[in-house]
UniProtKB/TrEMBL annotation:
Domain Septum formation inhibitor MinC C-terminal: 148-248
Sequence ranges of Basic and acidic residues compositional bias: 116-141
Alphabetical keyword list: Cell cycle, Cell division, Septation
Subunit structure: Interacts with MinD and FtsZ.
UniProt record, GO biological process: cell morphogenesis; division septum assembly; regulation of cell septum assembly
HAMAP family: MinC (MF_00267)
Protein name: Probable septum site-determining protein MinC
Family named by the database record: Belongs to the MinC family.
Highest taxon listed in the record's lineage: Bacteria
PANTHER family documented for this protein: SEPTUM SITE-DETERMINING PROTEIN MINC
Pfam families, alphabetized: MinC_C
Region (Disordered): 115-146
Function: Cell division inhibitor that blocks the formation of polar Z ring septums. Rapidly oscillates between the poles of the cell to destabilize FtsZ filaments that have formed before they mature into polar Z rings. Prevents FtsZ polymerization.
């Protein structure tokens, strides 16, 4: 009698993983929005290269037939759409990126934890009347949320920090960029691009000892070198939001 050898089977493991994706939200009139996007790309070439980009169509609400044309327009600009955010049960063609289900706005801050599906959510405060687990002396200190870069950032380099502030002890070369969920501090000359508060932190700021920046941005509001006051070039400045307006002021 011949017995077949047992077949070894391997289980497939599925794990959740979170990524920070940039969101583009087109607005009407679309032609003007695309012109603004072209200006951004002209001042920041390669900004979207290799980045996950989600297309939020809940504001524009285009007809299904126009979505494919818009995705193609963005593709011509080097922007690859990984997913589409669109309320309702809109059925899209199979050749279009998938529609996101259960999308959640990223939140900047230190009190962050993962839910059961691996998605970030804001850590809540202890319930009223209940004490926190463990004595203060027993709890481990929170790891620092600040990223310190001790070497200059060279042209072509990119620093992305989704957990707080970025401090650069040296200079930031032209053609490089810093992207931070919190504030950005540059103790040398800032010649590249700096984007602070990218996860919705409107209170973030940018500080630099010498402003030669190609672009400064806080929470999506930006100003290019061409748009800056000449008197602010070469000076120590700070950039911050004031009533949805990006202000760049001397820092003293």
């Amino acid at each position: 009698m011949t017995f077949a050898a047992p077949v070894e089977t391997k289980s497939i493991r599925f794990r959740a993983r979170s990524f920070v994706a940039f969101t583009l939200t087109p607005e009407a009139p679309l032609s003007e929005w695309l012109e603004s996007l072209d200006r951004w790309i002209g001042n920041s070439p390669g900004y979207f290269a290799g980045r996950p980009v989600v297309l939020n169509l809940n504001t524009l609400k285009p007809e299904v037939g126009r979505i494919e044309a818009l995705v193609a327009e963005l593709g011509l600009r080097g922007i690859r759409i990984y997913a589409i955010e669109l309320d309702g049960n809109t059925a899209l063609e199979a050749n279009l990126p998938p529609v996101l289900i259960g999308a959640k706005e990223a939140t900047a801050g230190l009190l962050m934890q993962a839910d059961s599906k691996g998605r970030p959510e804001e850590a809540g405060k202890p319930e009223e009347g209940k004490a926190e687990q463990g004595k203060p002396e027993d709890r481990q200190p929170e790891p620092p949320a600040t990223l310190m870069v001790k070497t200059p950032i060279r042209s072509g380099q990119s620093v992305f920090h989704a957990h707080g502030d970025v401090i650069v002890l040296g200079s930031v070369a032209s053609g490089s960029e810093i992207v931070a969920a919190g504030s950005i501090h540059v103790y040398g000359t800032l010649r590249g691009r700096a984007s602070a508060g990218v996860l919705g932190h409107s209170a973030a700021r940018i500080f630099c000892r010498k402003n030669e920046a190609e672009l400064l941005s806080v929470d999506g509001w930006y100003c290019t070198a061409e748009e800056m006051e000449p008197s602010l070039r070469g000076k120590a400045v700070q950039a911050f939001l004031e009533k949805d307006t990006l202000r760049i002021a001397p820092f003293s």
